[in-house]
What we know:
- This protein has helices spanning about 25-30, 30-50, 70-90, 120-130, 140-145; strands spanning about 1-5, 10-20, 55-60, 65-70, 100-115, 115-120, 135-140, 170-175, 185, 205-215, 220-225, 235-240, 250-255, 255-260.
- Helix content is about 25%, strand content about 35%.
- Strand 1 (about 1-5) and strand 2 (about 10-20) form a beta hairpin.
Amino acid sequence: MTDTGSGGNRRLATILFADVAGYSRLMRADEEQTLTDLSAHLDELVTPVIDRFHGRIVKTVGDGVMAEFGSAVEAVRSAVELQRGMAERNAGKPADRQQTFRIGLHLGDVIHTDHDVFGDTVNVAARLQALAEPGAIVLSAGVHEQVRDSSGAARWTQHTIDDRVSVMHALAVADLDGDGRMDLVTGKRFLAHNGNDPGEYDPSVLLWYRGGRDASGRPTWTPQLIDGDAGIGLQIVIRDVTGDGRPDIVTSSKKGVFVFERLGSR
């Protein structure tokens, strides 16, 4: 730890920021219940998990939590456990009571004064958290470097998810069903290259690959057909565009612009 000469100490730390996606909407719907639920999440999940992975809660502000870790690996493990735990706590709850974290992590120098932490590292972690999709974790390159394989190279395993559909030009990743696992959304373009691709005139499908795990713990993606004709263009947007607290899918293609509204809590 280094004395900055200005009443604080500088040290290397991993900062974790988490906040509840759509918190303002939840508060407008039922302020008392939302506060009660958030307090329970903090007491029963967030604090024990961060303690277990040797972190320290620096502060909570509204729906946000800022924590400090001496180890990037422990910080990432904590983030994963928080997302898993929130998915479990949301199971069976109505959609208007489900609270989902967005988490950002960054590693760097911080200035420690009394009970607070300051510096660019804190600001970057907060910005990464704002970029995260509900239920997701965004890491900075500095954190990723610390959690790579000990050989110095990242390890990768290839999973062939679907090789039956041609001309998949766009893909989006989000937790569509609120189970804490990332799902994939993609589809087929209509006449992408003037009809010169294999399967070009096959149905222009829009597909949801629901993320999960098999009995051995290996990741799985189960295909589900959302639409059999609209297809996709070069971009897929997943946002709550209807304001009901559930993610919707927006696509545009040569066939038009489409919003696929998610109905029901599952």
